[in-house]
């Protein structure tokens, strides 16, 4: 169940193009509906700044914590490699955006209607694409409640993704990027049997289904190898690029073949906030970032 070759977008074999991923927002369903809105309705609560800014700044004045996040660019792309950014619980150091609200916004334009809205700009050369994707793409922000930094996509732009470095319990409507392919996961229970559906975004064919009772003691493999349960014709993929298995926690996804990680990584779309940690790698558009350190100097 679930075997077959999927012909994806034509992919370059260069490492650089692996991390300059396509955007799922550019893929249309047969009904011309934006697919990412079909599978993931992102509430852009973070970008509502009016009263929330006042409340956050007021709350932060009483904080004893002095936490700092240090990130750097790790690929050669629109932002020069090894560019470093330091973020405190008040925001990006030396930002041109004046609000000290503990948030750092990323986008392809600094301003919108002559107002500075983004702290860090990931440039786009094509002016038409830049105009289409203007606004705030994703945000890193200091969570007062958790006393930590979090990251989340804002539903615009090219999508922000984090690279998996451990096993992930799959949730409904999660989106995963491997190579130049985007996979949407959904789950159901049919006659007490858990079923995992994997939809290849941008493809008109239906979902590929796997039954949990068939995969308790064996794995669902995805990649370009001819023995994979879900085979994708994509030179950016490893032979076994990612693996899914079922246990008492539900459906789980890991990068690689359970022994060795894939060359180019398995990436989770940041539709929900994730706490940031040292060595974490995330990407958006053609820029790849790594967390150098998270320190508390209080």
Automatic annotation (TrEMBL):
User: What is an example of a Pfam family matching this protein?
Assistant: FHA
CDD domains in alphabetical order: FHA
Which stretches make up the FHA domain?
Answer: 220-268
Matching InterPro entries, A to Z? FHA_dom, SMAD_FHA_dom_sf
Q: Which domain of life is it from?
A: Eukaryota
Q: What is this protein called?
A: FHA domain-containing protein
Origin organism is Stentor coeruleus
């Amino acid at each position: 169940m679930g075997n077959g070759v999927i012909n994806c977008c034509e992919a370059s074999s260069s490492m650089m193009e692996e991390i300059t991923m396509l955007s799922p927002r550019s893929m249309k369903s047969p009904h011309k509906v934006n697919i990412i809105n079909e599978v993931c309705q992102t509430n852009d609560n973070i970008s509502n700044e009016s009263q929330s800014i006042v409340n956050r700044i007021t709350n932060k004045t009483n904080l004893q914590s002095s936490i700092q996040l240090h990130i750097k660019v790790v690929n050669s792309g629109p932002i020069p490699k090894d560019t470093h950014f330091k973020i405190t619980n008040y925001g990006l150091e030396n930002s041109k955006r004046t609000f000290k609200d503990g948030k750092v916004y990323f986008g392809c334009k600094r301003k919108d209607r002559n107002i500075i809205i983004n702290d860090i700009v990931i440039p786009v050369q094509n002016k038409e694409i830049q105009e289409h994707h203007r606004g705030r793409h994703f945000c890193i922000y200091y969570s007062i409640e958790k006393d930590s930094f979090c990251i989340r996509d804002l539903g615009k732009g090219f999508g922000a993704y984090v690279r998996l470095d451990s096993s992930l319990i799959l949730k409904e409507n999660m989106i995963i990027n491997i190579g130049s392919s985007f996979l949407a996961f959904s789950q159901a229970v049919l006659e007490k049997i858990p079923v995992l559906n994997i939809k290849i975004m941008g493809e008109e064919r239906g979902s590929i289904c796997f039954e949990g009772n068939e995969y308790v003691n064996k794995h669902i493999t995805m990649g370009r190898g001819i023995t994979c349960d879900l085979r994708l014709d994509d030179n950016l993929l490893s032979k076994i690029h990612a693996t899914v298995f079922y246990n008492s926690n539900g459906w789980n996804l890991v990068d690689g073949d359970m022994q060795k990680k894939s060359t180019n990584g398995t990436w989770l779309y940041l539709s929900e906030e994730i706490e940031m940690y040292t060595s974490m790698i995330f990407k958006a558009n053609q820029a790849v970032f790594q967390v150098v350190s998270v320190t508390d100097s209080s």
